[in-house]
Amino acid sequence: MELKLSDLSERFENAVITLWHAAESDRVTKDQDLFEIATDKATFDVPSPCDGVLVKIIKEEGAEVKADETIAMIREDRS
Amino acid sequence: MDIRDLGTVRYEDALRVQTELLEERIAGKVPDMLIIAEHDPVVTLGRTAEESSIIDRGFFEKENIPIIPSGRGGKVTYHALGQLVLYPIVDLAGKKRDISFYIDFLERTVAKGLNCLGVPAGRISGKRGVWVRDEKIAFIGIAVKRWITFHGVAININNDIAPFSRMHPCGESGIRVTSAKIELGREIDMTAAKGIFADRFERDLEGETWN
After folding, report:
1. ipTM of this model?
2. Is B116 a catalytic residue?
3. What is the architecture, at CATH level 2, of domain B2-207?
4. Contact at 8 Å (CB) between B67 and B131?
5. What count of other Cβ atoms lies within 10 Å of the Cβ of residue B92?
6. Which residues of chain B have pLDDT under 70?
7. A43–B100 CB contact, under 8 Å
8. Looking at residue A79, what is its pLDDT?
């Protein structure tokens, strides 16, 4: 599953990744904080959308991201 | 919605209360909250603040005013007695998952509160914060976790604004700052001001069209 800001909110300004709470290969659970972004006046802890494994971090700390860019890849657990 | 007036507290102590209430709000144990506080003098650096935004670090050191990092959004700002700080702990998931919309909402409700005091404050298109003419009177810096907000907005009521000249508030150089006291030419009753902003916020939170 590709993780994008546009999937989280109807309207997201461009943001900077300020902190990763998880590392590649980590198991993650739904709603666990994955990473923090900062916009002009806000910080936002982005939660995992599902249980699974954080397979790939594409945007590292300090990277600027646009709403429709892929930030990370999560392999979702099969139910 | 519940309102909690912390009185005058250190910034760190207010943050601890916010964090506790944030966790309780996430767990659904408390309703939306508005925390109101005044802070002892302190400079805070938001997540994207640059050290160069503090022009005269020596001034703050000489005055024993701490400079501390903060997890909120935004850049550098200054808090002191006589400045009213509002920290809403509000669940956006049940309203609108849109942080820009929430900041717009905060600016509108603070401007209306200032209008109730008699200050002709408003918003400026393309700029964040609340303004009187081209002078900034309220400063926004928020954080959101699980779509619950914390941190918030600082409103210059009676506080001395001189320390703002020792920094680039919000990272903007050449910015001019004002207060309600300067605009009205008199000291404002802080208890009355707290009541006005709390009432305004509660009405607007309920009255806002979130969809």
Report:
1. 0.91
2. no
3. 2-Layer Sandwich (3.30)
4. no
5. 20
6. none
7. no
8. 67
Distance from CA of A24 to the nearest CA of B (A): 22
Name the E strands within B107-167: 130-132, 135-145, 148-156
Specify the amino acid at residue B129: G
CB A16 to CB B48 under 8 A?
Answer: yes
Give residue limits of the domains in chain B.
2-207
CA B161 – CA B69 distance, rounded (Å): 21
CB A41 to CB B103 under 8 A?
A: yes
Note whether B145 contacts A45, CB cutoff 8 Å: yes
CA dihedral B30, B33, B36, B40 (to 10 degrees): 60
A7, A56, B103 from A68: Cα distances, Å: 8, 17, 22
Contacts of B62 (CB under 8 A, 6+ apart): none
All residues of chain B having their beta carbon less than 8 Å from the beta carbon of residue A16 are 48
Mind giving me the DSSP string for A31-61?
T-EEEEEE-SSEEEEEEPSSSEEEEEE-S-T
Those residues of chain A whose CB sits closer than 8 Å to some CB in chain B are 8-13, 16, 18, 31, 33, 36, 38-45, 47
Q: Which domains does chain A have, with CATH numbers?
A: 2-76 (2.40.50.100)
Residues of B in contact with A36 (CB under 8 A): 47
Q: How many Å separate Cα B155 from the centre of its chain?
A: 6
Say what the pTM is. Answer: 0.95
